[in-house]
């Protein structure tokens, strides 16, 4: 038993090392065949630990595969969660920002801002909804660490749901935007309109993504903290972007979020 447990931990650390190395050096790895979600979320935690050790701070959470177009495109039909850190927050346009990247792709999203701690094991999903003070439009940049973005659900969870960067627009008062009116969220790259999707693509209403998040957070025993951002997931399939591209998401209800894809 004990030996098995030790081997199990060694496997978590080994997979985390490979995925972390791929992210740090911008070199994709072959799919690792992470069979279970239990192992996958353990690897994800080990990856986040490495980032925190390098001085990054916890910044929030991201959902994946909350819309039919994303599920169809990636062949995954289960909502997944990844974790955001301070190094992924590209909201402020800092000239000269650098990041190792493999095959970055951008997505238009909706973001929520949490303004009190929430323990999902103790509090219901409705409590999480009422802990949200802000809603914003967002751009997420994903970058799978697997060759050709080929993965099963366990692999992509282990790879922190392909998280690499995000930007949020101005925070609007959440209570005035619940439920969120259905409307289009558009994606622009260097000023060119590239894609658009409806807010209702996200489980009928992006607020429902918080309930889906609550489910996973309860299982994982995660706590939400003051200032946590929660990205609700893309309303369209992801769009390829390049170094230096200016990417924005626009909504006539929520405004604009913008980021620049970092240099190598
Ligand atoms: C996984 C990340 C999915 C979303 O918004 O659905 C995601 C991927 O497609 O690589 O961020
Ligand atoms: Mg996303």
Write the SSE topology.
Layout: H1 2-25, H2 37-53, E1 58-64, H3 68-74, E2 80-85, E3 105-114, E4 118-119, H4 125-130, E5 132-142, H5 153-158, E6 163-168, E7 172-173, E8 184-189, E9 192-198, H6 207-220, E10 223-224, E11 229-231, E12 239-240, E13 246-251, E14 255-260
Parallel strand pairs: 1-11
Antiparallel strand pairs: 1-2, 3-5, 3-11, 3-12, 4-10, 5-6, 5-7, 8-9, 8-13, 13-14
Helix pairs in contact: 1-2
What does this structure look like?
Keywords: Lyase. GO terms for molecular function: 2-oxopent-4-enoate hydratase activity. It comes from Rhodococcus qingshengii. By secondary structure, the chain is of the alpha+beta class. It has one domain: Fumarylacetoacetate hydrolase, domain 2 (Alpha-Beta Complex). Helices cover 28% and strands 29% of the residues. The strands form three sheets. Strands 1, 2, 3, 5, 6, 7, 11 and 12 form an eight-stranded mixed sheet that branches. Strands 9-8-13-14 form a four-stranded antiparallel sheet, with no helix packed on it. Strand 8 and strand 9 form a beta hairpin. Helix 1 packs across helix 2. The N terminus is likely disordered. Bound molecules: 2-oxoadipic acid and magnesium ion. Magnesium ion binds next to strand 1, strand 3 and strand 5.
